[in-house]
Write a structure and sequence with these properties.
The chain is an alpha+beta fold. The chain folds into 2 domains: 35 residues; 147 residues, Metal Binding Protein, Guanine Nucleotide Exchange Factor, Chain A (Beta Complex), CATH 2.170.150. Helix content is 25%, strand content 28%. It contains 3 helices and 11 strands; from the N terminus they run H-E-E-H-H-E-E-E-E-E-E-E-E-E. The chain has a 6-stranded antiparallel β-sheet. A 3-stranded antiparallel β-sheet has the order 4-3-11, with no helix packed on it. The protein has a two-stranded antiparallel sheet with strand order 1-2. A hairpin with a 7-residue loop joins strand 5 and strand 6. The longest helix is centred in the first third of the chain and has 33 residues.
Length: 196
């Protein structure tokens, strides 16, 4: 084989290796972005959502526009317990009957553990026997979002906080009247404040 042909093959091989190396660097950067290892911010420019605001006694104070909260995984980990992070940011589930609010009968409001948005009123909480806090409706349909979840071979509707996308739990159609729904939530995705 001639020197020129060998040189050409080496050039092609070097270019190919450079592409692969560059692709690996790009893949690492993409993975970092997806896992939140990049710098995040609390208020991305121009991104707003409408939620219904509530007073400490559970009365609506109207619909307001607020900045959508976006943070990196590093920032969420610094703010949340390990289990709250796993549930809210990675769509995990706490063990049944292990959460502090499963048997809570106090009067008050349940807020998002990540951003403090009001999510559920204790007046709609009921004993479902499942081991998770269950409600027959959210405090406002504006404050939660639902999306289809087909994980673990099941078809369910996942429920998240509209303001920060924290995973809260799932909603099922086996609840009591008047809605017939069961919002089955994770205690670690909530924090409770007694009614003022």
């Amino acid at each position: 084989m001639s020197f020129q042909a060998n040189s050409h093959r080496r050039s092609i091989l070097a270019a190919g290796l450079a592409l692969v190396g560059g692709g690996a660097v790009f893949a690492r950067l993409l993975a970092a972005a997806n896992t939140g290892d990049t710098q995040g911010s609390d208020t991305p420019s121009g991104q707003q959502v409408s939620i219904e605001n509530f007073s400490a006694d559970g009365k609506s104070t109207g619909v307001i526009k607020v900045a959508k909260i976006v943070k990196s995984d590093v920032q969420w980990r610094a703010q949340l317990s390990a289990l709250s992070f796993e549930v809210t940011r990675q769509e995990g589930t706490e063990r049944a009957f292990s959460g502090e609010y499963a048997a809570n009968h106090a009067d008050g409001i349940y807020h998002c553990i990540c951003c403090d948005t009001a999510l559920f009123d204790s007046k709609t909480k009921y004993e479902s026997g499942t081991g998770w806090p269950s409600f027959w409706q959210p405090i406002s349909s504006l404050n939660v979002i639902q999306k289809s979840d087909s994980s673990f071979g099941m078809q369910r509707n996942a429920v998240s906080c509209r303001r920060c996308d924290a995973h809260l739990g799932h909603v099922f159609d086996d609840g009591p009247r008047p809605t017939g729904l069961r919002y089955c939530m994770n205690s670690v995705s909530l924090h409770f404040t007694p009614r003022a």
